[in-house]
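Problem 12. The chain below contains 252 residues. Write out its predicted structure in token notation.
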Amino acid sequence: MSQVTTRKLRVHDMEMFVEIHDSGEPLLLLHGFTGSSQDWVHAGRDLLAEHFQLIAVDARGHGRSTNPLRTLTQRQCALDTLAALDQLGIERCKAIGMSFGGNTLLHMATLDRSRLDSMVLVSATPYFPNQARPIMGSILPDAQPPEAWDSMRQRHHGGDDQIQALFDQQYAFKDSYDDVCFTPPALSRIAARTLIVQGDRDPLYPLELSLEMYRAIPRAALAVVPMAGHGPIFVERAAAFARVAVEFLRAS
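Solution.
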């Protein structure tokens, strides 16, 4: 049975919740927006834990992590995560990031090229395309149905104020242009071996954006999941994803 420990780290102005599974070579897990570290239960966590020490964090303002300033950028989440790795004594690791977490890994891989040995980017993007912005703008913060609040309360433990801040930020992404803005020259500086995983029916980020990253990142591989949308790694696809991710990460 997996041995699990939890820690609360003081990182910059916030407290970051970290869940650590077993021992061995560290594998950082970064969830998607409005998700939490517990999402990996549905994305092959137990299979991943057979091969790596899992370091699953709750991003700023998510799950059991705080966010006193309420503002949220993926670049700041990258800085938070790098500082958390420093506190944990992890100089270099492998990583998997889902959507928001994948964008955070892009920041980490360009801010400090030495920290990531290899990474898997799931439904990440070099920038927010025009087709994503109307979808982001359609999620009105003050018009969320009760079932949306109930679902969020199961993941986030800071009360309704925390959840409202996440709804507000989700809507604000439609006007964000500077946070996620990776040019091919910036991506070409990434040293980590990179596997890009993309659903071919993703309504937010078209497949062409994954091809842009694949062509720009020097040591990249691309895995397209047929008939799949955003985040094609959960539930029935979890075991297949975990096998592919383990094979890629262990080969580096």
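Discussion. The first strand starts at residue 4 and ends at 11. Students who got a different answer should revisit the alignment rule from Section 12.3.
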